[in-house]
């Protein structure tokens, strides 16, 4: 059976980008068709300025939302990264295979390091080595497929490179994984700055739809989305990014195709209105289930405890094999 691994960082509240770019596929496809693990990657949240109590709260919230979105612990494994020591154990070995130059070429590192410096903070070493820990997350489970949004392509490529290099140097140990992306909305853009992705850690409220936003907040954000001064509704990602983003969101919510949808609308207002309602309807059942799960925190804790146990049992043999392959 295909092994699937993916994760979310508890660096902020989960967004529509996380849902359309990754989570929906986990729920609708991966947990049914594969042996799938979904991880709240809390160690990654420590790579930038953070409040520890908030990271803990957001981890529980992310787990609750994954279950609310439809992940079923009878079908897949949901757990928290820091509960399983194997990730950090393997990360060190992979750091000995990765190079400094490779790390510095990562686009997300450059962007995030610049952001930390602009805030007057210093750049943590872990921000540089973060993609190696991500590679360990993936390789520890013998992962075949990594369902992620477009923004993670470079990191999964690096993971493949490290797996191949390790295997060549020390003997075959790791499965070489590949990324899978959704056909539509693989990169949902910020509604206020449609040339940057909708990222949960940006905390730039008005351009980000959070999964727990009230219907009126969703409507307000979508109706105020930045478009352009044209009048005709056409699907052009390069030339008309704001409009293309709305068409993609609507298409992803309704199962349509952005190009076909552009022919249906004669005004931006009508498109925005339908997009807002489609998002509200998409989020309604998730929010309802989230509310129910919040009333039963013991259930979520139990799922995470079992998940960590299962994950540990899966990761340990691979990580042990990696140490043995080196002769340690
Ligand atoms: P974030 O950038 O919100 O902190 P994470 O690193 O936690 O996201 O990513 C969780 C998953 O959501 C990843 O698979 C990532 O590719 C996907 N994802 C995040 N933002 C977007 C987006 N704007 N559009 C599509 N997918 C996204």
TrEMBL record:
Its main location: cytoplasm. The keyword Hydrolase does not apply. It catalyses: tRNA(Trp) + L-tryptophan + ATP = L-tryptophyl-tRNA(Trp) + AMP + diphosphate + H(+). A motif ('KMSKS' region) lies at residues 197-201. Coiled coil: none annotated. ATP binds at residues 9-11, 17-18, 149-151, 188, 197-201. GO terms for biological process: tryptophanyl-tRNA aminoacylation. CDD domains: TrpRS_core (cd00806). GO terms for cellular component: cytosol. It is found in: Cytoplasm. Catalyzes the attachment of tryptophan to tRNA(Trp). PANTHER family: TRYPTOPHAN--TRNA LIGASE, MITOCHONDRIAL. This is Tryptophan--tRNA ligase. It comes from Streptomyces chromofuscus.
């Amino acid at each position: 059976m295909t092994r699937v691994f993916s994760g979310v960082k508890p660096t902020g509240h989960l967004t529509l980008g996380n849902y359309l770019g990754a989570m929906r596929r986990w729920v609708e496809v991966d947990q049914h068709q594969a042996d799938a693990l979904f991880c709240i990657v809390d160690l990654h949240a420590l790579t930038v300025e953070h409040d520890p109590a908030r990271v803990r709260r957001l981890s529980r919230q992310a787990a609750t939302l994954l279950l609310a979105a439809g992940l079923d612990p009878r079908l897949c494994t949901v757990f928290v990264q820091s509960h399983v020591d194997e990730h950090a154990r393997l990360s060190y070995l992979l750091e000995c295979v990765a190079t400094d130059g490779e790390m510095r070429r990562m686009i997300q590192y450059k962007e995030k390091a610049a952001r930390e410096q602009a805030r007057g903070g210093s750049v943590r070493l872990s921000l540089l080595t973060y993609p190696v820990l991500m590679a360990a997350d993936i390789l520890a489970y013998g992962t075949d497929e990594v369902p992620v949004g477009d923004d993670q392509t470079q990191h999964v490529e690096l993971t493949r490179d490290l797996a191949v290099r390790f295997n060549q140097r020390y003997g075959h140990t790791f499965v070489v994984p590949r990324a899978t992306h959704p056909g539509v909305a693989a990169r949902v853009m910020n509604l206020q700055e449609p040339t940057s992705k909708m990222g949960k850690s940006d905390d730039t409220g008005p351009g980000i739809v959070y999964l727990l936003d009230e219907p009126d907040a969703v409507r307000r954000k979508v109706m105020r989305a930045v478009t352009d001064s044209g009048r005709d509704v056409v699907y052009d990602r390069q030339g008309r990014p704001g409009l293309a983003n709305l068409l993609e969101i609507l298409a992803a919510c309704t199962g349509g195709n952005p190009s076909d949808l552009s022919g249906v609308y004669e005004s931006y207002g009508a498109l925005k209105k339908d997009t807002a309602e489609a998002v509200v309807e998409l989020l309604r059942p998730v929010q309802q289930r989230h509310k129910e799960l919040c009333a039963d925190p013991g259930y979520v804790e139990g799922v995470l405890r079992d998940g960590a146990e299962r994950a540990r049992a899966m990761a340990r043999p691979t990580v042990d094999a990696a140490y043995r392959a080196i002769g340690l």
